[in-house]
Amino acid sequence: MNEQNLGNSEREKQLKEKLMAYRALESRISTLAKQQNMFASKTLEIQSTIESIDEIKKGAKDILFPLGSAAYTKGAIADRNKLIVEVGAGVALEKTSDEAKMILEKRKKELEEAMGVLQKEIQSISAMMQKIELDAQGIIHKAQKEGEKFRLVSSE
Questions:
Q1: Is residue 7 part of a domain?
Q2: Which terminus in the chain has less CB density within 10 A, N or C?
């Protein structure tokens, strides 16, 4: 093997490694984005629940109670100041509407903080991906400058 072929082979190896790292980062970003969307959906649900509690406190007489599978029934509220709220680990307790709102606000804040952490991680991974792209372009540019030709064969 002559020296030029060795250089070409090494560049191909470097590019393949960059491509694999890039794909791993793409996969991680996809997973993080799905988590972020799930947290955003849950945050909206909590906000809607808080607004419903406010409406009950204002004196709403009848509300729709969910039965499941997008089915509801109208019902009257027996006690405007007592709610059953899940406090964690599948445990639900009776709380005042203000206590329930505080629990929900805390959950919402935790989700928003988690979304912020996810966003920072996504930005960090995006920066790593950009660096990999620049490195790969540098390898290709150097090879072209030296008159080398090669192609990456995807293993997919």
A1: yes
A2: C
CATH number for 111? 1.10.287.370
Most confident residue range from 51-65, 99-113, 139-153: 99-113
Q: Which pTM was predicted?
A: 0.77
- Is pLDDT of 1 > 70? no
DSSP letter, residue 70: T
| pLDDT above 90 as % of the chain | 65
Cα gap 136→77, rounded to integer Å: 64
83: Cβ contacts below 8 Å, ≥ 6 apart: 53, 94, 95, 96, 97, 100
Q: Identify the CA nearest to 53 among candidates 83, 73, 95, 94.
A: 83
Model confidence over 88-106: pLDDT tens digits? 899 999 999 999 999 999 9
Sign of CA dihedral 121, 12, 139, 2: positive
Distance CA(29)–CA(125), nearest Å, equals 7
Q: Give the residue among 107, 59, 104, 112 at the shortest CA–CA distance from 85.
A: 104
Contact at 8 Å (CB) between 132 and 14? no
